[in-house]
Amino acid sequence: MVAAIAALVWLYGNYNPGSHLLFPKCPFFVLTGLECPGCGSQRAIHHLLHLNIGQALQSNMLLVLSIPYLALGFWFEFAGTRGSPKAERIRTQMYGYRAIWVVLTVIVIFWVVRNLVQLS
């Protein structure tokens, strides 16, 4: 797993997905001309690896803003916090059933708003 992550970091660090045919294009965008919630994620990762935060935000703001949330989730999953009542309570609140619906709602709102902004 570490080798795969290192390979992806090298790949995205050395090649810009916006200008290389090596990277897949979004089928939703190709079919509709509209951006899905994930459109621009590959470019955002490339920009983040080069510390171009502004360009990463322009590519996919949702991805950039979700990094702390995702990092916290990985920490809860792999840091061995099970057993701490406080950590379990926070984990349940942040990643439980209700949180799933909140995250889904945020993704759908982002999807709609980013296309409305581009159409105007």
Describe this protein's structure.
This protein is 73% helix and 0% strand. By secondary structure, it is mainly alpha-helical. The chain has one domain. Helix 1 packs across helix 3 (41-49) and helix 5 (85-95) packs across helix 6. The model has no long low-confidence stretch (mean pLDDT 92).
Structure summary:
The protein is mainly α and 120 residues long. The chain is built from 6 helices and no strands.
Task: Spell out the key features of this protein.
single chain, 120 residues, mainly alpha, globular
What is the fold's blueprint, element by element?
Blueprint: H1 2-14, H2 27-32, H3 41-49, H4 53-78, H5 85-95, H6 97-119
End-to-end CA span: 43 Å
User: Which secondary-structure class do the elements indicate?
Assistant: mainly alpha
Number of DSSP strand runs: 0
From the spread of the alpha carbons, the general shape counts as: globular
- Rg from Cα: 17 Å
**Count the helices. How many?**
6
